[in-house]
Q: What sequence folds into this?
């Protein structure tokens, strides 16, 4: 799942990481003032 937003959503990302642990990888793909792009990758 890809998440795109203008402010950096550190709190939602860290909350998701705590909830899903090693089952989900969170990777920043872009960190610019106009858009933050984060991929959530499910490990199988």
A:
């Amino acid at each position: 799942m890809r998440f795109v937003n203008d402010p950096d959503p550190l709190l939602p990302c860290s909350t998701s990481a705590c909830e899903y642990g090693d089952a989900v990888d969170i990777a920043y793909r872009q960190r610019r003032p106009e858009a933050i792009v984060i991929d959530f990758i499910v490990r199988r």
In short: Strands lie at 2-5, 24-32, 35-42. The longest strand covers residues 24-32.
